[in-house]
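REQUEST FORM: STRUCTURE PREDICTION
Request ID: SP-0412
Submitted by: Lab K.M.
Chain count: 1
Length (residues): 487
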Amino acid sequence: MTEGEEKKTDTEETSSKEAALDSISEPVAETAPAKTVSMDDLQKKRSPVKLLVTTILMLLIALGIGFAIPNAMWFYYIQSGSQNMDDLKLEESAKDFETAVTIARLFPSSDERLGLSLNTLGTMQLALGRYKEANKTIDESIKIHERLYGEGVKSTKALLLKAGLNRRQGKYKQAEEIYNHALDKIEHAEGKTAKYAEVLMVLSILEIYRGNYARAEAGFLEVTAIHKELAGDKYKEPPDMTMNMGRIAEAKGDYKTASDLYQKCLKELGAPDDNNKASHCLVLNLMAELYITENNTKEAGTSVEKAYALAQSLSAKEYLQAANLETLMNLTSFHIMEDQFDKAEKILKQSLPIARDRLGRNHPAYARVLSQQAEVLADRNKFKEADADALEAIALMKETVGDTHRYVADLMRSRAKVLTRQKNFDEAETVLKQALTLFAECLSAKHPEYANTLMVQAALAEARGNSARATELMARARKIVEAANER
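STATUS: Completed
RESULT:
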């Protein structure tokens, strides 16, 4: 075949193919075109799918970031608030916890972090003495906890914080009611567990403050029984229980047993360290109160000095538990007992603002500090101001714990000292008789507190020039104190 013939044949085949293509209907031609499809065309055709996928991925990333950022920020502010609290930067700590609460409100209603944030903020507001704010914060937390956990044990967390608020404000009856409510919830949910025992321990300590010593002792014994049942042969009496039983012995006037238990508690705690300094401080304060009541200046001075040294090194959390204030009050009492009123006045400049601004006027500690200030003012011959403070202290204490409480008797005795300095002997005698009657009713006529009041009565008799009466009263007082330390 010649070259011309080959070209002719190719042309004819091409024409036949074109004719065949032309015979195909239009629609088919659109779905299956004969022309070559480029990569750009393919990319264009897939772009809507890619756009959808890309959009979904971006949304997921945005959601992930949007979820991760609040989580990270919440954790940061909780940690920052805790660190500032440890550093005693209380205002900064409160602001951090407020921010954590704001962030936690962005989480779903089922998230428990808002309740947790409110609890931490409420705790800090309590520490700063912002009781009105704390009350609002804690009430919101209670609602959240009850919604999330119902009658479960977790719902008691905020309740216990509310009880602590009432206790700090001196609302002992309301605090007791909440503690009992929490105990009922825990027992209903899981029985008498370690959590139940923990709350019962706090309630029993509150009963001591309320002057209900029989209830307090019964509570401590039940706590011990619960822990023994839970731990079995592994049970070991904790130091705090030893200390609390010492408090019961003190209330009974058995100072020998009380002192022995406090000494035992110190041994059980071991050498003071970062983990037990607050407990050491508390026990030393209790011992100092014993010795101050007995006018044992040597032992009282040693105990209160040790307590004061430890109080200065307490962590922020322990400091906020008012351990430092208790030490300051005992130190003031010691200086007054030693007639060191200049030193007492200096300590009062520290303790009065703490009691007034952090605990509030309704707290027993404020009344006690106010009574101490009255004695210092009396030494300065500022009798009008002194008696005004003494009367206010008694009135505030009655509002808090009732008319028939040992704390009221204690403040009456203090006022009698002010009246004696003022040479208002008749009224001083009347007030002391009231104090003696109240101590006998709340404690007993064989209690060292009763004896201490007899000693004040003896000082009054001496001031009136009745030395024989003073000698008789001192002899009675010493006999009671000796008996309390020989049991």
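NOTES: Residues 1-35 have pLDDT under 50 and may be disordered.
Reviewed by: T.R.
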